[in-house]
Write a structure and sequence with these properties.
The protein has 112 residues and is α/β, with parallel strands linked by helices. The chain is built from 3 helices and 5 strands. The structure holds 2 RNA strands.
Length: 112
Amino acid sequence: MRDYLTIKENFRFQRAYKRGKSYVSPALVTYVIRNNTNNLQIGITTSKKIGKAVQRNRCRRIIRAAFSELAPQIISGYDVVFVARAKTSYVKSTEILSAMKNHLQQANVLQN
RNA sequence: CGAGUAAAUCAGGCAGUUGCGGGCAAAACACGAAAGUGUUUGUCCGAGGAAAGUCCGGGCUCCACAGAGCAAGAAUAACGGCUAACGGCCGCCGGGGGCGACCCUAGGGAUAGUGCAACAGAAAUAAACCGCCACUUUGUGGUAAGGAUGGAAAGGCGAGGUAAGAGCUCACCGGAGUUGGGGAGACCCAACUGCCAUGUAAACCCUAUUCGGAGCAACACCGUGGAAGACUAAUUUGCCUGCUCGGCAAGUCUUAGGAGGUGGCGCUGAGCUGUUGCGGUAACGCACAGCCAAGAUAGAUAACUGCCAAAUACAGAACCCGGCUUAUAGAUUUAGUCGCUUU
RNA sequence: CGAGGUGUAGCGCAGUUUGGUAGCGCACUUCGUUCGGGACGAAGGGGCCGCAGGUUCGAAUCCUGUCACCUCGA
């Protein structure tokens, strides 16, 4: 299994929101942008709009579970930011998985 | 059987596959001079009754004072107890509600002072508008029985009494004071005196008690770069400058400390468990036995499937404890009460 | 962790200090004016004052609890 790092700095989130490519579905928003390293870095955003701590934690878990399925197939050298939406906490992880796979194929970051 | 009251408990479980955080152990591998770090393997542990709101009380840390008092501000308010402490809890008294089990109650002081009481009403803290009675009758005096108002109208009600009336007098009730008795106390009971000017202090205020301030982003340690100060005695290098002196920088030492990191931080602690024993009505205390049980740092409990009638509530530790308040699907247990029926 | 503020008509706000009538502007309805519309003029409707208790004769106002939103500091 490949390693991936998490994004912690606010300016990289801001760069992804402003200059990255975005893909939207009802339960997930994905931003993809190249970074200048050889690593794959991901960030998960769960805002206060989604709910309280239980809902936000569940969104993070679902997104992380879906991502761990896809992580070995992703080309390194990208920052990927996932944003949870209001519906995310009521949805199963398989739906997130299909949405995420669709987004990442559109972004051309999946290996064949 | 129905209705209702009080108290307590649980907060999905099991199985399979994939996966996450921490402790411990041993070996192997990788990196490293070493300390050690990472990976793999084994094993153990891994959110709540409210973890929530942040409304009180403490521990802990730093600052202030190292003498207490006054003032200011805030909180609390019958009485007795429990507790480390509390504005919490238990018991009990007074008041209110319910047929009852039981429930609710910020419940000190209004002759220490100040303020306020709209409208209505003759009059609102002080009384004569109407009425009633008397007389020297277009007025004067007596009178609070009766009168529409109002939250509140000068203790209530009945009898006596009177010119008419009035606690003016008496019985009962209410309230106040004194005495006696009971109780740990709030308070309760009885007798006597005898009718004493409304309400509001969750208006200002008075009385009693308590409180130094700030908070784990506290605080302690390390601290690339950079900052400030000192030393240049000896030696070396560079620059001003070709040489000497001098200065600056490098150098050495000291100080404070931003980013970042480590500790604080889960540790024997006001600890948890107990069909246990003793004391107490109870809160709780003492003894005994057993146990050591999350500790992350963008933040660990998840995903998928099957079965159990159904799996669905509120909801995620972030320094730690004791309470309070609020949210909460469903299920279970115990003890009283009322009504109906049967024996 | 700490400090503060705001909830009143469909919208934006007064009134809360010092308790007694809930008001202003825009919007809405009707009528007038105009050939018609706008503007203008006149009249009118619409509120359990965030929620629940309490104090008081009486609460938007005072007290307690609670909910939602907003702002600030470390």
